[in-house]
Design goal:
Shape: globular
Radius of gyration: 13 Å
Helix content: 25-40%
Strand content: 15-25%
Number of helices: 2
Distance between the termini: 29 Å
Largest sheet: 2 strands, antiparallel
Length: about 80
C-alpha cells in the first residue's frame, strides 16, 4: 500500500486504525483518527497557524527539537488538502 499522510496534520497513515471515520462509519482515506471522526473535524474552526502551533507542541513532547518541529510543520501543513487555498 502506498504511504499516505493525514491531509490535516501530516501524520503517516499506514494501519487501518490510524484512519479517521466518515459519518457512515467507513474509514476516511484522507484524514487520521485524531483529526477526523464521524464525518467531522475534531478541531473544527482551528486556523492553519493554530494547527501549526499544536503540531509543533506535540512534536516537541515526542522528542523533536523545536527547530526541526517548526521547520517541518511550516513546510508540510500549508500544502495539505485541508489548508490549501
Amino acid at each position: 500500500m502506498k504511504s499516505q499522510i493525514c491531509q490535516s496534520c501530516g501524520m503517516p497513515l499506514i494501519k487501518k486504525k490510524e484512519f479517521g471515520t466518515n459519518k457512515n462509519k467507513t474509514r476516511n482515506r484522507e484524514y487520521c483518527w485524531s483529526c477526523f471522526n464521524n464525518g467531522k473535524f475534531l478541531d473544527e474552526g482551528i486556523t492553519l497557524q493554530e494547527k501549526i502551533k499544536k503540531n509543533i507542541e506535540f512534536a516537541i513532547k515526542t522528542g523533536w527539537s523545536e527547530e526541526q518541529a517548526k521547520e517541518i510543520a511550516n513546510e508540510v501543513l500549508p500544502n495539505l488538502k485541508r489548508w490549501r487555498k
